Amino acid sequence: MRTPQTLRLPAVLAAVVMLVAACGQATTTSAPGSQAPGQSAAPPASQPAGNGEVVELRWYCCLGGGDAPEQVEVEQQVVEDFNAAHPNIHLTFEAVPYEGARDALATQIASGNGPDIVGPVGVGGAEAFHGQWLDLQPLIDSTGYDLGQYPDSTVALYNTGGEGQTGIPFAIYPSALFYKKGHFAEAGLAEPPHEWNGTYTMPDGTERPWDWDTVREIAKILTVDKNGKDATQEGFDPENIVQWGFEPQRDDLRQTGAYWGPGQLASGADGTTVEIPDAWQQAWKWFYAGMWDDHFSMTGPQFESDELNPSDYPFFTGNVSMAPNYLWSTYGVGDSGDDWDLAATPSYNGTTTAAFNADTFRIHKDTKHPEEAFTALTYLLDEANDTLLTTYGGMPARPEEQDAFFTTLQEGFPNQVDWNVAKEGVEFADVPNFESYMPAYNESLDKIIEFGTKWQSTQGLNLDTEIESLKTQLQSIWDQEG
Amino acid sequence: MAVLTQPRSRRLVRPRGLAWRRALWGYVFISPWIIGFLLFTLGPMIATLGFTFTNINLEQAEPLRFVGLRNYEKLINDPTAIHSLTVTFRYALIALPVAVALPFAVALLLHSRHLRGSGAFRVLFFMPYVVPFVAGVLIWQGMLGSEGNGWVNNFLQLIGIEHPPDWLESTTWIYPGLVIMGVWGIGAGVIIYLAGLKGIPSELYDAARIDGAGAWASLRNVTIPLMSPVVFYTLVLAVVEVLQYFLVPLVLKNGTGQPGGSTLFYNLYLYKNFFAFQDMSYGATLAWVLFAITLLLTLLLFWGARRWVYYAGEAR
């Protein structure tokens, strides 16, 4: 059947329109990396908008949380409020689920179509995009933004790696030792100390420093098999453990180590020599022995088992007695029961350290409208501060807001929690932070995770040899980067 | 002479009148696809080929510049890249025979006239194929688990195997484990083979029977030769798929390559370089080398096909 001539032209036009519509999303972009990190000395000039023209900005989320539906709803409302208060700026919110957020952002930036504002994002999440952040110092100076309202240590957290002041404090997450009171009572053990740098009373009445050796001893007592025997008793069955005494923070080996002592892997004058802090090495050996010899921590396969650890953090199951973790883990800790509380983290060689997380918002260095982006950034940090901190569950970086935060947080739990432990824990934050810059950040982190996974799944390794191998392989990656 | 050849040549080069208008409208109607292909497939492909000769990466700490064959040199000297290629070929050695032969065997069983309720079986075999891939991997992770909750191992223990394989944590057993997972998705292959089997004329089987051929002889001399184009098609697709094997190790082991680097497949390493390590130049180089390997193997298969693939309509 032949198509009448009169119908052909509209059909062709429709096809062309569809094609143009499909291609119409392309945006004029700049080449990635057109500006070296830390270069800006004067406030970068915004590209002028025409008379009465509205500046378009994009806020990219969620490299480190903020993607839950209820959070997205709040974030959208914040954006609407901002737009209503700033008729010359139109902010758009882009929520990409955490699992794909890094890939999507890498693709956007590589194609020269990066967003203006990114966050909330932690130190590590931001370092994964090292060199992509705008130095805010010129804008802070030109607008007179008051950094004095934050403790110096948290301000300094965003001024590392030679990129300038790439962030302003927003949410902080200090660490503490989460523990189950019921497990301690059942084992006839004293509860761990709430005072930092405190002591612990052993079952025989002796006072011991609250350090990792002490934790090892009581963790074994708190580890119980299905026959009710603990890990110190004859006939204990490590194949059938029902309660573990201790769970480390194992998201990556650096933070496992950071609870033993602050440090970072990069050393040397130019930061290109791998140096693994001694405290981290001891932490890793302790953790390894805890899994495979002492049995008070889950092995890798046990940790990966949905039956034993359905929500990624074994403490949430209620079958783990002690676990150092950040304050953000309060989102799921209620699942462990209503008899948990917070204690101080143990010391190593007389020094107590509590690894530290912090989230904030950043401005992408290639933004065409840095001044407007800074206006939006400070709106998120100031006017929308309470709303966003509540939805993210973040502890305010401003000290005067912290008491109110803990009052609200307590309302979510039936048991009275000693929040003062977490509040005082800020003083013991790891400085330098374990997530600080290292060369070839993503590839190095991948290598670190590879070793961590191997140790968790392989028994009988010589950890000295393993650590040396990790060091060598990291150095090889860094040398190639150079 | 010139008078004789001119009209033929003119007809071939410049179709006129109705034929020309038809060809033009044909091109107009397929132009959206052609433009889309040029812009979104061929263009990016050429761009990535260009990337392989530069130092482009996300951080771009040093200025963007032409680096010649440096990325290819790096690949040759990169033990992880070589290792990931070895991993891929090692897996292919086990996976390919299963991916080609098992659906064929199942299709033969489903095609049997002695099978009652073959329609129901076809649905059952195809059903896993429509389950989202990631969900399927997570289900199999539970099935093959070793920490007291692996159904497969529980069953093996029940029938007296005291120490069943550590499917997902052993460098030896991980590949059979992955192949078992892959078996779940044979439904599509079974359907293709079934379509091929239904296309074999029954007269050939009748003639074979008259000649005294039994079931085995009919299979060997009728079914297999006539199914050889379908087997070849399945083999080519399986080779391409196995070289691009990616999603299962990514979901199963979070892309760590564990246990012991045995799941660090080439395509996974490529992905990590491109997106996780943000080294676009090296990622593109790995991609182009994969393309070359795939092309080479496919050409080899086509070359070899002349010896064993039988096309009924082809003069031999």
Architecture overview:
With 482 residues, chain A is an alpha+beta fold. Chain A contains 18 helices and 17 strands. In chain A, the strands form five sheets. In chain A, strands 2-1-3-16-4-17 form a six-stranded mixed beta sheet, with helices on both faces. In chain A, helix 2 (69-85) runs antiparallel to helix 14 and helix 17 runs antiparallel to helix 18 (463-481). Chain A is globular. The model of chain A is unreliable at 1-41 (pLDDT under 50). With 316 residues, chain B is mostly helical. Chain B has one domain (71-315): MetI-like fold (Orthogonal Bundle). Chain B has 14 helices and no strands. In chain B, helix 3 (70-76) packs across helix 14 (280-308), helix 4 (79-111) crosses helix 8 (174-183) and helix 9 (187-198) crosses helix 11. Residues 1-11 of chain B have low confidence and may be disordered. Classes of the chains: A alpha+beta (482), B mainly alpha (316).
**Superfamily (CATH H level) name of chain B:** MetI-like
Number of strands of chain B: 0
Shape descriptor of chain A reads: globular
Structural class by sheet pairing and helices of chain B: mainly alpha
Quote the beta fraction of chain B: under 5%
**Helix-strand pattern of chain B:** HHHHHHHHHHHHHH
How many separate helices of chain A? Answer: 18
Structural class of chain A: alpha+beta
Please give the order of strands in the largest beta sheet of chain A: 2-1-3-16-4-17
Radius of gyration of chain B (Å): 26 Å
Average pLDDT score of chain B: 89
- The tally of domains of chain B stands at 1
